[in-house]
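A.,

Following up on our hallway conversation. Structure tokens first:
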């Protein structure tokens, strides 16, 4: 399965077999920094971190992550055990309210 996301004017493609790819300046899909770390991982959502160049990633196995292009770290939230293992949909409702739609726990507002 492939999923695509446009975040901060850049196209990302998450694939199970190649990991995380992005569209580079020449228009080619290439491996994003640390992209191979996502091989075999389903990424359900990707959002910008407010006031930061970093991204939030929401994955099936690892839950809520912070990706800064040099590292991938868990976002420390009591929700992370709830999010891991579920299909997720995520969206910013405002600058400070994040909606996380889950398969088993409804919509969570953070």
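Then the amino acids I'd put at each of the 110 positions:
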């Amino acid at each position: 399965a492939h999923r695509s996301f446009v975040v901060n004017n850049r196209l990302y493609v998450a694939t199970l077999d190649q990991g995380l790819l992005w569209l580079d300046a020449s228009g080619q899909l290439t491996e994003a920094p640390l992209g191979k770390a996502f091989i075999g991982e389903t990424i359900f959502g990707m959002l910008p971190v407010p006031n930061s160049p970093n991204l939030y990633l929401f994955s099936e196995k690892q839950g809520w992550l912070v990706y800064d292009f040099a590292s991938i770290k868990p976002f420390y939230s009591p929700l992370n055990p709830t999010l891991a293992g579920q299909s997720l949909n995520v969206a910013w409702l405002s600058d400070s309210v994040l909606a996380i739609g889950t398969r088993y726990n409804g919509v969570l507002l953070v």
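The chain has a mean pLDDT of 93. Curious whether your intuition agrees with the design.

B.
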